[in-house]
Amino acid sequence: MKEATVRVFRGDSNGGQTVDYRVPIAPGMVVLDALHHIQGNLAPDLAVRWNCKAGKCGSCSAEVNGRPRLTCKTRMDDLPQYRHRRFLELSCQP
Fold this sequence. Notes:
Blueprint lengths: L2 E10 L2 E10 L6 H12 L18 E4 L2 E4 L10 E2 L2 E7 L3
Parallel strand pairs: 1-6
Antiparallel strand pairs: 1-2, 3-4, 3-6, 5-6
């Protein structure tokens, strides 16, 4: 199965750091699915905001690889590939 490295900024308004997670990629998977995988399997304390998962409400917005995106509409397959592995850098500011 393909994998992606997801780098998530973890912290608060006083600072923080990035943490890398390896996530399996399934066909049709979006960034929000990767975040749910991290939350459910690797970091249960990760807070993930979302509501409709249809690209209407905007509550799942985050900075994905340096650009503002809706995580429910950003497909993992569309992310750049480095050394045969997809890489995603994610930052959600409080």
